[in-house]
Amino acid sequence: MSSPSSAAAAPRTDDLVVARPEGLYCPPGDFYIDPWRPVDRAVITHAHSDHARVGHGHYLAHTDSEGTLRTRLGADIALQTLDYGQAIEHHGVRISLHPAGHVLGSAQVRLEHGGRVWVASGDYKTEPDGTCTPFEPVPCDTFITESTFGLPIYRWPTQAVLFAEINEWWRRNADEGRASVLFCYAFGKAQRILHGVDAGIGPIVVHGAVEPLNAVYRAAGVALPPTLRVSDPGVDAQLLKRALVLAPPSAQGTPWMRRFGNYVDAFASGWMQLRGTRRRRGVDRGFVMSDHADWPGLQRAIAGTGAERVFVTHGSVAVLVRWLTENGLEAQGFQTAYGDEDGEEGPAAAAPVRDGEAVSPHPALPPEGEGDMP
Questions:
Q1: CB count in 10 Å sphere of residue 94
Q2: What is the pLDDT of residue 358?
Q3: Residue partners of 290: CB distance under 8 A and separation at least 6
Q4: How far apart are alpha carbons 126 and 115 in whole angstroms?
Q5: Which of 233, 245, 330, 365 matches a 20 to 30 Å C-alpha distance to 37?
Q6: What whole-number distance in Å separates Cα of residue 320 and Cα of residue 143?
Q7: Core vs surface per residue 235-266: b (16+ CB within 10 A) or e
Q8: Each residue of 55-99: pLDDT tens digit?
Q9: pTM of this prediction?
């Protein structure tokens, strides 16, 4: 669970969103946003499993999240979907979803009630990547922002620079007759890599946790190159010598890896910007790649809303709260259970605590990328 900030959120009687043990709650609307405990009604910003949990009575999410949510949570969940900008009213609260640029279907939740406008952003990034609708700032009075990479050290390379580095690495390995194994999260990062790499370098092989999510992206119209499974006909030792292999971090060190022989490996994560992280991951190369906003991106996103009040969730909460306060905004922190799986797990992320015991926030779901998706 994220550590509480030094300035804990002090709710007001008219706040549109407050923190409850179940999650972020909208009192006038009687619903939750990305709750981590089962509730009757949940608005879901995106389908990463720290934001989309099993057990809710009713789900509301963006249209492009339907495939991933049903793949991960069950085909029979009670799911209502909205397009970006489409609004509905529930108990007098006007709800609409707006692009977050994080992963396919990711959305910011805009709430309007009694002349006030709040926006809960979920997770977001500000540079377009071609696999999801780009982030759009939504004007509001109060903005709820993540801070996964809320430190000035975090500044991402451009898409062009990032993929030039990945392509050069893959091409060199292929010329040497060695498979290029790139560890990345199965939902979001894997599809972003597929969309951005030069598929002319060689064949692309994906882990069983990745391919069902590729199908969801393709169904949504996202252009991805052809991909293979290791069990497909024609996938042999000779083909694998030139292959790019995309696998979740959980595949590292498993028997599945043995078929790639004398491979070269790398890890794609925003944490690769930290000195020593690549060494701790035990890989040959690190690529600085994140589906979350970097420090300048967080600043631009918050400024773009025009909000005078900001709540900060998971990540470097205290640092971002301090920076916002020093720049004249009213800023506080929400304590949440986000950020522990699926997206970017920090080097020392702590497990949530319930009744004095460290537990998984969603025991009914396997950790991201472990085994094949159902």
A1: 14
A2: 24
A3: 125, 148, 149, 154, 156, 269, 270, 344
A4: 28
A5: 330
A6: 13
A7: beeebbbbbbbbbbbbbbeeeebeebeebbbb
A8: 999 999 999 999 999 999 999 999 999 999 999 999 999 999 999
A9: 0.88
